[in-house]
Amino acid sequence: MLSIPVIRWGKPYDSLEKETVVHFRTGEAMAEVHQANGGLIQRDMKRAAQAREILRAIPIPEIIERLKRAADLYENHPLPLGNGTQTPDEFVRQQSASTGLPEHMCRANMKKNSFVLTNMDKILDALTRGLDWRILSQGYGIESRGVVVSYQAQAPVLGAVLPSNSPGVHTLWLPVVALQLGLVLKPGPQEPWTPYRMMAAFVQAGIPPEVFCLYPGGPEAGAAVLASCQRAMIFGGTATVEQYRGNPRVQAHGPGFSKILLGDDVVDRWPEFLDLMVESVYINSGRSCINCSGIWASRHTREIATALAERLGPVDVLPPEDPQAGLAAFTVPGMAKAIWGMIEADLKQPGVTDMTAPYGPRLVEMERCAYLRPMIVHCESPEVEIAKKEYMFPFATVVQCPQEQMLAKIGPTLVCTVITEDEKFIRQVSDATHVDRLNVGPIPTTRLNWLQPHEGNIIDFLFRSRAYQVTEERMEQLRREFLPSTAGT
Description:
- This protein is α/β, with parallel strands linked by helices.
- It has a seven-stranded mixed β-sheet, sandwiched between helices. Strands 12-11-10-13-14 form a five-stranded parallel β-sheet, sandwiched between helices. The protein has a three-stranded mixed β-sheet with strand order 1-5-4, with helices on one face.
- The longest helix has 17 residues, at 60-76.
C-alpha cells in the first residue's frame, strides 16, 4: 500500500499519526497518508521567506518553461508518489475511487490543470495586464509608458486549504510558482492525489523542491496554514466564506450560486437555450461553483423547468469507470441523506414543485456511499427559501421573477449568464457589484476563459501596487534595463 509522507520544504517527513484513504465503494485501503499537526506547520513557516528567495533566483520566463515540462509530466508520465510510483491511469483511478467522481471527469480535470500549466505565459500576461514580469520579480521597474511602478509581494508563499469535492479548483493556485512564491498546501482528506502529483511533476521539471510544503491533516492543520501564511486561500461552504469575509490575508472560495438570467426580449425563444442550460447544470456532476444553480425568467418558467426535468430527471447512477457516468458519489457517510432531508423540508413550501419527481427517487443509497440524482425545482417566486440554495450535485431552481426585480433578488452570484439583447439590462447587470464573472449572451456558466480571472485576480491578492520614486540617475539605470531603446533620451 502507498505510504504518503508530509512534505516539509521539499523533504519527506513520517508522522506517527496516519489516515487511510479508502475506495468509496469497496472500502479497500489505497494509501496511508501521514498527518501534520499545527505546531509543526507553525515552526516550518518561520522559514517561508527562503521559498521566495530560491524562486527569485530563477527568471520567470525560465520557470514558465519548466512548468510547461511539468504539464507533460503530470498528464502523461509515471511520477513518484510516497514509497511508490503512479502512472496517469493510476492517478485517474485513485482519484475517482476516493472522491466519488467518475473517471472520465477526473481525466478531464487533469487535462484542465495541464492546459493551465502549458499556457502559463499567456495566463500571466492576461492576469498582469501586460506588466513586465521583471517588475513583479524585483518589486519595481518601468512600464512601457515610461513610468516607474512598484508591485510588492505581500507574502513569500501562498497557503491553500484544499477541498476534496472538485479537483478542478487546483487551477487557482497553479500560477503561484510562476510568480516566484512558494506553495504551502493542505490537501483535501479524500483528494491528496493532485497536490502530490503536481509537486512531483514540478520537481522533475526543475522547480526546486525546497519551495513546497504539503501538510495532510485534520482541521487543526488547515487552521495552522491559514494562521501562519500571510496570504492563503480556503474552499468551503457559506459559513467558511462568512468567517473570513473582510480578512485581507484570506481569500475564501465558497458556493458560486451561479445563474442564468433570461431577458424579457428573448424568453419566448427559451427552447433555443435549453442545451446551454442543461450543460450549465449538469457538467462535472454539478460539483463546481460555476455550475448553474438558478435559472431566472419572467415567464415560461414552468415550461422551462419541465423541459429541463425531461432531460435531466432520467439520469441514473452508473459505475465510476463507465464513460457515460454523469453523477459523482457522496463518500462522506450521511451527507447525501442530510442534504436530501433539507431539500424535502423546502419542498413543502407553497409555490415549490419538484419537477423531477416523476422520474424516480432522487436519493440512491448504497452500502458505503450515496448518490443524489439531478433535481429541477420550479419556484413561483424568488421569495421561497429553496430559490437561494445550492448543492453539490446537479440541482437547479427555475425561478419566476419580473426582469426589473431580478438583480435585487438573485443575491451573490459567481457566474451570471445574461441572455438578452436589451442594452439597458446588460448595463444594469454589468454594474451589479454582487455579480463576479459575467457572460453576456448564450454562454454556459461552466465555460471558462483562462485568460480571465476566475474569482478575484490572484495578482491583486498577492501583490500590492504602491508609490515608488527614484532619482534621475537611478531612473536612467531603469531605462537602460527595461526600455533600452529610450535610454539617454
